[in-house]
TrEMBL record:
Pfam short name (any one): Cupin_2
Lineage top rank: taxon: Bacteria
InterPro entries in the cross-refs: Bacilysin_H2HPP_isomerase (IPR052535), Cupin_2 (IPR013096), RmlC-like_jellyroll (IPR014710), RmlC_Cupin_sf (IPR011051)
Official protein name in the record: Cupin type-2 domain-containing protein
Domain Cupin type-2 intervals: 38-100
Length: 123
């Protein structure tokens, strides 16, 4: 099945200059994130029980996982195991487009969902 991202509504990004669109199946979900501008993201460090894979398709981002900072450029892939603290910190000068795959699916992101957020901010 082909996903046409233009057919998926843009999700609110809580004050951050990102465009996010979401698709999900029974066992995994995919969040497409576009950042048109460079700069600091100021996202709080968090964790969740979902495993997460991040694939950068355009541009670059910086993120921190369990205290180690990584630079991801177009074509790079990162894996975040369940329960590990992480955050995205910076979008490179050309912006970025990335896909975040989560298993189990992040049903809390589905439009109209009443599922509680899977994000945790505590230690």
């Amino acid at each position: 099945m082909k996903i046409n991202w233009d057919n998926h509504e843009v999700l609110p990004a809580q004050g951050i200059a990102l465009s996010r669109r979401f698709a999900f199946g029974q066992e995994m979900s995919c969040l497409r994130v576009e950042a048109d501008q460079s700069g600091d993201l100021n996202l709080p460090q968090h964790w969740h029980t979902n495993e997460q894979w991040v694939v950068v398709t355009e541009g670059s981002i910086r993120f921190v996982c369990e205290g180690t900072e990584y630079e991801l450029n177009a074509g790079d892939v990162a894996y975040i195991p369940s329960g590990q603290k992480h955050t995205a910190t910076y979008v490179g000068p050309e912006g970025a487009v990335l896909l975040e795959f989560s298993a189990p699916p992040r049903l809390d992101l589905a439009p109209g969902s009443i599922v509680p957020s899977s994000m945790r901010y505590d230690d």
